[in-house]
Amino acid sequence: LNDTPSDLIDKVIGIRDADFAHMNDEIKSKIHSKVLLTDYHDIEIMMISSDAFKKALNEIYTTQRKALAEQDIINLKNFILDSIKSIGLLRYVNELYNLNLKFINSF
Question: I need a labelling partner for 107 at 20 to 30 A (CA). Which of 33, 44, 62, 87 fits?
Answer without folding.
Answer: 62
